[in-house]
Amino acid sequence: MPALQSVVLSAFACSGAAQNAGALPPAVQSMVAETLRLFIRAPHEDEDADAVSAAMVGAAEVCKTIGGAMVHGLQIPTTDNKDGAGGPSVPLPQMLSEIILHVLREDAICQCFAEDSDDEDEEPEEDAENDLAAEKARVGEVLMEGLAQLLPAMCELSAEGFIATFTEGFPLLMRQGERRHSDHQRSLVSAILVDCVKALGNLATPCIPVVMPYLLKEMQAADPVNRRNAAFCAGSCFAAAGAYATAAQFIPQLQPALNHLMANPEEDPAVVDNAAGALARIVTAMLAASPTPQLPFADCLNALLIALPIKLPLADCLNALLLALPIKEDDDETEPIYLAVCQLLSTKDSSVVPLVPRALQAFGGATQDPNMKPVIMRHIADLLRMLAQGHEAELQAVMASLPAEQQAALTALMNSH
């Protein structure tokens, strides 16, 4: 496929030149701009969806190589300059935003399909219709794979400049995740959302009311990959800096949806891990959003819960998180879950106290895991020391039911500094 090969080779050639050019002298900058211009033209001119997707991947790689400062300041010529004369130029973030929107609107050349038969009176054959549907699905997936590289890269490298021209992008992206599209394409949409939300931070806040209803629907999808991606993305929305106040309005719908995923005995283990991680991120964001940080921790929590229009039952959350431990498949969820467990127990709320023995069992198991991160053990150690203040005898009595090696490990943690 010559078109695809030329796009990929151009991307790597340009990236290598940029890496070796240091400050990028004018000649290299000109080459970078011209290469990006060719990539940007692909959705308008190339009928090959693979080539268009590769062009988006190539543009993402070049942008990541040259860095955010140059991405933000680079001007891309909008006309051929074979004679060396300067033509009209547009900021790179704006041009990339426009081609992403072009693809999301399904206006690219490769997204145009001739559906009419030669004879207007002749009904299209069933096989032809099936072939057309299959090709549309393939094209959609291929282009979404390209967007999965370019869209998050732009959010990371030029967040403010890019998002200013991308206001309609998230609703269009949600359309690409509708049930009429394949499971794979919908899973890519959720994956794109995760990366974009993480990259944008508080700039992602305006898109959360658009994104969250989609994620709630995807948590009921038939494919477990879609369910886990949706759950993870929902938690990421709460983890984004400054987004809690906007995301909190969805807690009444999210908590039962996540609980359903975690409580289903036939659920895929990876889905359970991601659902528990999402609940943990919601808990952590809720605690971090306390409006009265000068008060003791438990009082902060009570003040926050009173201020919120909904109540998040602490004991229910803690019970669900403890049931999810130990993590089965997605080790990345281990830290947020243990952090949330420690935070919930540190409130000393009367509803969570009965769950201390079960939490100590989970902590004991963690001490025997050679892959457990040191930061998790520090969270556990801090909590144990706090619980032992004035209640060390009771804590030791509960720990006495654990295996000897776990007792010793937890005691050592409690006495560490």
From TrEMBL:
Principal localisation: cytoplasm
InterPro entries according to UniProt: ARM-like (IPR011989), ARM-type_fold (IPR016024), Importin_beta (IPR040122)
PANTHER family in UniProt: IMPORTIN BETA
Protein name in the entry: Uncharacterized protein
Secretion signal span: 1-18
Highest taxon above the source species: Eukaryota
Keywords per UniProt: Cytoplasm, Protein transport, Repeat, Signal, Transport
One BP annotation, GO: protein import into nucleus
Subcellular location: Cytoplasm
Gene Ontology cellular-component terms listed: cytoplasm
